[in-house]
Each structure stands twice: as structure tokens, then as C-alpha cells.
Design a protein that fits this description.
Pathway: Metabolic intermediate biosynthesis; (R)-mevalonate biosynthesis; (R)-mevalonate from acetyl-CoA: step 3/3. This protein has 589 residues and is an alpha+beta fold. The chain is built from 21 helices and 13 strands.
Length: 589
């Protein structure tokens, strides 16, 4: 029937002819501000003024009540009026900030209100308006893809992860329910392993929940191919994957008449190649030799007394040789391998720092020495009941921090490694000469480091080698800080024809059991060096050998890098080996 618009149902209803203004109003919908008696900007200004004025008034009144010790629940008529005005203005502000949401849900006309033979364009415009108001919900890809317009409204968009890899291959309903519970905060992420009893499944669920919470994809972080049971309760908490670091081999390193292929986990190009060249120079010159100077892990608790005199009494007690046996007995009962060697004390006012040094077998030994120290503190509490133990570690140890006490006294394994490099090897392999190396070492590693105020950093790149070997063999990478303390010495021999080079490293902290050494990849690297696990013949032999290999590798790397600098080849070699032209992202995908 002409002159009428029909609903989408079978019923009809008369209407008046719409003008262009009417049609525009119908499509956009009535505004929320149309219901207000005043213009919207005046109403907003009025309520905002009332809100902040009332807040200021109430805060002033409460401050007066606190000062006068008046109970806050006692209110006057003005207080009641102010509270009522605060609530009213607050409700209005909530409505103001939520106006877009209210309008989109209530006041927006439905796209199927009218249907007629000439209303196709109107309905298409309505659908365009709806499409613009679609928001991506909890999807990780927070930019909704363009939708093809159609007369029939599209179903809700399904959340999608950007570049998501298909892991796990099957997410059943139970896994989905657990993921939603983690996302909602009902299930703690750290409890998944204990609740599920499956570490791999727990990691997969935690990973998926993390992607949904952060709207970020972890597609480049591998999850398959790792034994998550092996790290439970000892290596890493709340895992979501593992990082891949390439492992290169330098060598063979001829050290103490034996050859070692040294594994190095690094992402720095040219590092393995440079160390390998140093190993070659050492090998052609007859090899290097090493000497272990000390082997003792340390822990230093801090205790406090009422007076400095009382603290000094404990210092004298611990340093008295007559008391060492009884103290060591208390210390040694915590382990078969932990044996107390000495105690060094330092006093700061009423505070006493006691640095315990002990052997730890093939373990790095931090936990072992800490248990022994706790036993001694419990023992001392009987004779010194006024002793207040402030901390099991008082930083006089000193762990994972550069310190003079480690540089002077040593911590872990103290090793010196040396080699005599023949003159023709210096010229043909290292591409430099003895005189240039000796002069550069003095001006760079010694004088330059002193000018910089270095603490144990009288070397070219010891930390590079220590970190690479530590990561490959499952050591604590953070202990690279003190383990890289090193002084490199170079002197001419035989009238300047040959070169004597040495590295002295007083605090190499390594172990071949415990921690990350048990992981499959790290265990394989230890096995390559012949130091996997505990030594069955001599406790601690494997850990001491690993420390010597670290020092020998540092010697090779120092020799090669110093030669490159002396010959002016540092920049060119890094540009050749450290600047890949491949698109690694395409290769990995």
C-alpha cells in the first residue's frame, strides 16, 4: 500500500511521509541530551561544580572532626544535604561517562524496524552504523577485520589470537574452562601444576591464558620439545615456554695436556669464532696450563648486639683457633661434602659480619653453605643469647655483585691459567706481533681499566666467555658478575720473540650437580667436557676441572680479541661475522 511503511512482521501501520531531517534522525537515533531541561554543556558544568564543591566541603568537615576528636558518624543537617548532593552528582557523572554505552544499547533503533520496497539504502546505512560500533571483545587481535555488509546482521565475532600457533593441538572443554578461570582470576596461575598434575598441560594452559589477558601472541616462543617436569620446584616457576639460544663449539682447547671442545651459548656473532682462533694459537704453541689456587664458597650473615664491645667478643671467639673445631662440627653436620675452612669477621659498630668459607664438592654450593651457616648461628645463640640475627646474607659474601672481598679473598674456585705463544704463531695466526700485544695490554687492560676505576675488570672480555659457558652448562648466569673478575697479563719472552700470556680469576663459581646442570641440554654440554655430574673418584674434581676450562677459554678469547684490536681487525671481523643479511623471522617461520 502506498503511503505506508511495513514492519518486518505481517502487521502494518499507517505513517506520515518522512522528511530528510526525519530520516536522518531515525537513522542516528534520539540523543540522550534531548531529555535534559538545559543544554548538555550547562548541565555538565553544573553537576561537575556541585560534585567537586561537595567533596571539598565533606573533606573539610571530616578534617575538623578528626582535629576535634568528634566521631565521624555524627552528622549535621548540612552534612546530610552534602552527602545527598554528592550521591546525586556522582550518579549523574556515571551516567554521563556511560552515555555512549546506554545510547548504543537502548536508544539506537533496531535495523529491522522498517521494511519497504524503497528502504534498502536505509537498512544498509543502519548496518554500517552497527558495524562501526562493534568492538573486539576479549580477543587478542584488538583490531576487528573489515566485515562484508549484508542485510542480515552478522553473528558475533569469535576471539582470535594473532599469529597463534596450534598449541596445544586440542583444547578440550575442561582446558577451556580452566583457561577462563585463570583469565578471570579465580584460579592462580602458579597453582596449575599442583591442581592438574601435568606440568606440560599446565604450561600450555598458562600460556593460552597469558595470551588472552595481554592481547599479545607468543607464537615465536616454543613450547613443545621441553621436559617441564625437570624444572618443577627447582629451576623455574610458572613456565610458558623456553628460549632458544644457539650453542657453538670452540676448540679443541689444549689445557693441561688434554683437549676440550668448549660449548658456548651465545647470540653474539664472532665470539665463538674469535675464541676458536685463540684455541688454535694455544694448541699450535703447545697448550696452556692451569693451577687451582683456592676452592671455597662463602656466605656471610649479619648479626647485631647491644654494644660494639659485645659484637667484638663474638668476633674474637670465632677467630680463635681453639674454637674452630667446635664451630666446624656444628657447620659440617648439614652435608657430606660441606666442610668449613675458615671464618673471616668484619665489624661495623654494633653489627658483625661473619664470612664463612667452605668446600662444597661438585656443587656450586650456595644452599650447602647457607645450611651450614644456619647451624652455626643456632649453636652460637646458646652462648650469645643477646645476638640478633638480621639476615643469613649480609652482602659480605659477596654474591652476584662486584666486590673487593671477592677480588682479594676469592670466592668459589680461584684459578690462574697461562700459555707461551710462539712468535710465528702470533704473526701467522693472530696477525700481529708480540710488541704490539704487550703494549696494548698495558694501556688497555691495566692502565685503561685503572682509569675507569674497574673492580676486577682488568681484562678485555672475560665476561663474554664466562656467560656463554655458564648458559651452555647450566650455571647461574647472574654469577657471571663476580666470576668474570680477571686480570690479563702479557709479557715478552726470549728477547721479544715469544709471548707469555696469563689470566688470573679469583672467583669462578661453578658446579656440575644441582640447579640447571640437570637439564637435558645443559647436561649434554657438561658431558661433552667430561664433567657431567659428581666425580666418583674425588669429590669436587669435576667442578674444579670445569673452572679450569672456563679460565682456559677466557685465556684463548683474550688472546684473540687483543690481537684483533692490535691489528685493527675488530670492526671488520664483526661486520663480517656479526651482521647477518638473512631475514631470520622468515627462516624461523
Amino acid at each position: 500500500m502506498e503511503g505506508t511503511r511495513r514492519r518486518s512482521t505481517t502487521t502494518t501501520k499507517p505513517f506520515r511521509k518522512l522528511t530528510d531531517h526525519d530520516e536522518s534522525s531515525a537513522l542516528t537515533g534520539p540523543k540522550a541530551s534531548d531529555a535534559l531541561p538545559l543544554p548538555l554543556y550547562i548541565t555538565n558544568a553544573l553537576f561537575f561544580t556541585v560534585f567537586f564543591s561537595v567533596v571539598y566541603f565533606l573533606l573539610t568537615r571530616w578534617r575538623e572532626k578528626i582535629r576535634n576528636s568528634t566521631p565521624l558518624h555524627l552528622v549535621t543537617l548540612s552534612d546530610i544535604v552534602a552527602i545527598f548532593a554528592f550521591v546525586a552528582s556522582f550518579i549523574y557523572m556515571l551516567g554521563f561517562f556511560g552515555i555512549d554505552f546506554v545510547q548504543s544499547l537502548i536508544l539506537r533503533p533496531s535495523p529491522d524496524v522498517w521494511a519497504a520496497e524503497d528502504d534498502d539504502e536505509d537498512e544498509e546505512d543502519l548496518l554500517k552504523e552497527d558495524a562501526r560500533k562493534v568492538r573486539c571483545g576479549q580477543a587478542l587481535d584488538c583490531t576487528a577485520p573489515p566485515q562484508k555488509l549484508a542485510v542480515v546482521p552478522s553473528p558475533p565475532l569469535k576471539p582470535k589470537v594473532v599469529d597463534e600457533i596450534p598449541f596445544p593441538t586440542t583444547l578440550n572443554e575442561e582446558d577451556e574452562e580452566i583457561i577462563n578461570s585463570v583469565v578471570a582470576g579465580k584460579t592462580p596461575s602458579y597453582s596449575l601444576e599442583s591442581k592438574l598434575g601435568d606440568c606440560k598441560r599446565a604450561a600450555a594452559i598458562r600460556r593460552e591464558a597469558l595470551q588472552r589477558i595481554t592481547c599479545k601472541s607468543l607464537s615465536g616462543l616454543p613450547l613443545e620439545g621441553f621436559d617441564y617436569e625437570s624444572i618443577l620446584g627447582q629451576c623455574c616457576e610458572m613456565p610458558v615456554g623456553y628460549v632458544q639460544i644457539p650453542v657453538g663449539i670452540a676448540g679443541p682447547l689444549l689445557l693441561d695436556d688434554k683437549e676440550y671442545s668448549v660449548p658456548m651459548a651465545t647470540t653474539e656473532g664472532c665470539l665463538v669464532a674469535s675464541t676458536n682462533r685463540g684455541c688454535k694459537a694455544i694448541h699450535l704453541s703447545g697448550g696452556a696450563t692451569s693451577v687451582l689456587l683456592r676452592d671455597a664458597m662463602t656466605r656471610a650473615p649479619v648479626v647485631r648486639f647491644g654494644t660494639a664491645k659485645r659484637a667484638a667478643q663474638l668476633k674474637f671467639y670465632l677467630e680463635d683457633p681453639a674454637n674452630f673445631e667446635v664451630v666446624s662440627t656444628a657447620f659440617n653436620k648439614s652435608s657430606r661434602f660441606g666442610r668449613l675452612q675458615n671464618i673471616k669477621c668484619a665489624l661495623a659498630g654494633k653489627n658483625l659480619y661473619m664470612r664463612f668459607s667452605c668446600s662444597t664438592g661438585d656443587a656450586m654450593g650456595m644452599n650447602m653453605v647457607s645450611k651450614g651457616v644456619q647451624n652455626v648461628l643456632d649453636f652460637l645463640q646458646k652462648d650469645f643469647p643477646d645476638m640478633d640475627v638480621l639476615g643469613i646474607s649480609g652482602n659480605y659474601c659477596s654474591d652476584k655483585k662486584p666486590s673487593a672481598v671477592n677480588w682479594i679473598e676469592g670466592r668459589g674456585k680461584s684459578v690462574v691459567c697461562e700459555a707461551i705463544i710462539k712468535g710465528d704463531v702470533v704473526r701467522k695466526v693472530l696477525k700481529t706481533n708480540v710488541g704490539a700485544l704487550v703494549e696494548l695490554n698495558m694501556l688497555k687492560n691495566l692502565t685503561g681499566s685503572a682509569m675507569a676505576g674497574a673492580l676486577g675488570g682488568f681484562n678485555a672480555q672475560a665476561s663474554n666467555i664466562v656467560s656463554a659457558i655458564y648458559i651452555a652448562t647450566g650455571q647461574d648466569p647472574a654469577q657471571n658478575v663476580e666470576s668474570s673478575h680477571c686480570i690479563t697479563m702479557m709479557e715478552p719472552l726470549n728477547g721479544g720473540e715469544d709471548l707469555h700470556v696469563s689470566v688470573t680469576m679469583p672467583s669462578i663459581e661453578v658446579g656440575t650437580v644441582g640447579g640447571g646442570t640437570q637439564l637435558a641440554s645443559q647436561s649434554a654440554c657438561l658431558n661433552l667436557l667430561g664433567v657431567k655430574g659428581a666425580s666418583k673418584e674425588t669429590p669436587g674434581a669435576n667442578a674444579r676441572l670445569l673452572a679450569s676450562i672456563v679460565a682456559g677459554s677466557v685465556l684463548a678469547a683474550e688472546l684473540s680479541l687483543m690481537s684483533a684490536i692490535a691489528a685493527g681487525q675488530l670492526v671488520s671481523s664483526h661486520m663480517k661475522f656479526n651482521r647477518s643479511k638473512k631475514d631470520v623471522s622468515k627462516v624461523s617461520s
